[in-house]
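User: What would this chain look like folded?
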Amino acid sequence: MPVTIKDIANQLKISPSTVSRALNDHPNISDETKALVSAKAKEMKYQTNFIAAGLRTKKSNSIGILVPHITSSFFSTAIDGIQKVVSEHGYFTIICQSNENYHDEVDQLRSLLSCKVEGIILSISSDTKDYEHLETLTAYDTPFVFFDRAAPGFDMPTVEANDYEGGYQAVEHLVKRGRRRIAHLGGPKELGISQRRYQGYLAALKAYNYPINEDYVIFTNPEVSHEKEIEEMFKDKKNMPDALFTFSDELAVEAILKLKKMGLTVPREVSVVGFGDSNLCEIIEPNLTSVTHEPKIMGEAAAELLFKVIQKRHIPKHEKNLKFDSRVVIRDSSR
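Assistant: Here's the prediction, encoded as structure tokens.
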């Protein structure tokens, strides 16, 4: 049986109401009693009943997280960081995924609100073009923070990676490795982070006076296979790209596996650079060079920012929109 407030009260021979107020840092309870109750609660492995506490205080002590894919290495690592901070604040998380689908995003957001979460960390789906559901959040003063993917036109706190910088650095790395025909396997064309990585790719090519070949650029749908597109890009051995920068590590792994099927060697004939620095980088052979932006630290920052919004604390302008630097982690796929 779980330990209750009454059990602690019986051990200390004080009233349950005194124990409850001590655990909730009530100003009428002395520091000595608070310390005594806290020590006994820890000794007895007492755990707060968040549901009961929410009913008493009209607070749920919960934070909602809504991301496109929980299985994505980037988002799962970020969630780890979010949960660390949320737990330190005495809250718990409710995690949902939209599966890159607008209607699922709306439904999951509605579910989070029905659970009376006190704030939401949100990364919009690639399918989301209508933002009425987000306008509802602002209309009802629901605290939320955009994470990695933000909707345009909303003056809300945002935590994101410097995707443009990451795209530029990836191509610059390939240029310095002597590659001359650098292709790009991008994400969904309408997605902001996909466009920023693509713009970084273009900027690096221009900076080094490389020609821009439209045949070397493919925008993708993350929900389907791209083997045919990759095969088409690399079928002409004389004019095929000698390097490939991809929107994600998942796309990079798919590309490497397809190139191997086609009899091409990585990195001797084609260098490959992914984006995300996920666990996949160490699993695939050769190990994948990738752009990293520290998703766990980004997740921690998003949670801290959300609690500032919940507590209605002043957020300086330079802290309201946090952008994390990117860097290339070099491995065998581009050496």
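The longest strand covers residues 62-67. If you want, I can go into more detail on any region.
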